[in-house]
Amino acid sequence: xxxxxxxxxxxxxxxxxxxxxxQDLGFPVLSMKEAGVSLDxxxxxxxxxxxxxIKARAVWEKTGGIVLADDSGLVVDYLGGEPGVYxxxxxxxxxxxxIKNQAIIDRLADAKEEERTARFVSAIAAVLPDGSExxxxxxxxx
Length: 142
Description:
This protein is of the alpha/beta class. 27% of the residues lie in helices and 25% in strands. The longest helix is centred in the middle third of the chain and has 16 residues, at 48-63.
């Protein structure tokens, strides 16, 4: 059987990026839809790593093989870590990034310069053919 990677997303923009990043592996990289998986996965973890693993496990249970998933978002210290793991759902899933960003900026109106710290956090999880799991997380400060 030909080895393939399933990426737990339905986002076509993300799939273009993932395929570009993984192209040197020489494996086909399929979206959930392309792999025949239709799931509404509840991301109820408290960290980006937990949410990425929740998605990877759910898809792996349907496909086996190699499954990757991600979760990412903005963590603003002055806002107690918001929007955090709720970044995609912050102010509603259909709310534009422009509106979300403006709301965050507005909430920072009283913050002193030294209190305006934040980071973008991204986690990638993998479930391998034997069921073993890997997860890594990175941050970009700013």
